[in-house]
């Protein structure tokens, strides 16, 4: 087990990581749902890749949680459930244009980036901080890519 710095406690570290694991699962589900709903083969590939990246992030976080004596959280969050519900409803009413799916994914990535920023403000051990920083950079890259694709879809419509 890593040496804790400052006032970090094992429980606090596990709480921060469990928040991020729920975040990753929400992202995985949201991207997978968008991949199922979107028409463009290119966007299907992007969303499928992003879903796989979120699943990998959740797995990595779960390993850290166990290493720090915790139990990985089950499922996602209430906000994530609303996000998933929105994507599902959007698809059912036929409003699932590429642009609307990208807008919803961008909204999800905004939330993900915010949760990583919140986590990075916590007092975390070096091993945990390194993983959280790397995943935060990935979430920012995802956000920026989705925003760019959304801007391109807007220009086409």
TrEMBL record:
Residues 136-157 are annotated as: Disordered. InterPro entries: CHP02284, DUF2383, Ferritin-like, Ferritin-like_SF, UCP029477. Residues 141-157 have a biased composition (Basic and acidic residues). Residues 13-122 form the DUF2383 domain. It holds the Pfam family DUF2383. This is PA2169 family four-helix-bundle protein. It comes from Variovorax defluvii.
């Amino acid at each position: 087990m890593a040496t804790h710095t400052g006032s970090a406690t094992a429980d606090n570290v596990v709480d921060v990581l469990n928040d991020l694991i729920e975040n990753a699962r929400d992202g995985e589900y949201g991207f997978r749902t968008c991949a199922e709903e979107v028409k463009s083969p290119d966007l299907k590939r992007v969303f499928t890749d992003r879903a796989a990246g979120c699943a990998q992030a959740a797995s990595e976080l779960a390993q850290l949680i166990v290493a720090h004596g915790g139990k990985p959280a089950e499922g996602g969050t209430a906000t994530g459930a609303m996000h998933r519900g929105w994507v599902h409803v959007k698809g059912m009413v036929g409003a699932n244009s590429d642009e609307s799916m990208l807008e919803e994914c961008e909204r999800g990535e905004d939330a993900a980036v915010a949760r990583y920023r919140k986590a990075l403000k916590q007092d975390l051990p070096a091993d945990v901080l390194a993983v959280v920083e790397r995943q935060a950079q990935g979430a920012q890259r995802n956000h920026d890519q989705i925003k760019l694709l959304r801007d391109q879809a807007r220009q086409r419509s």
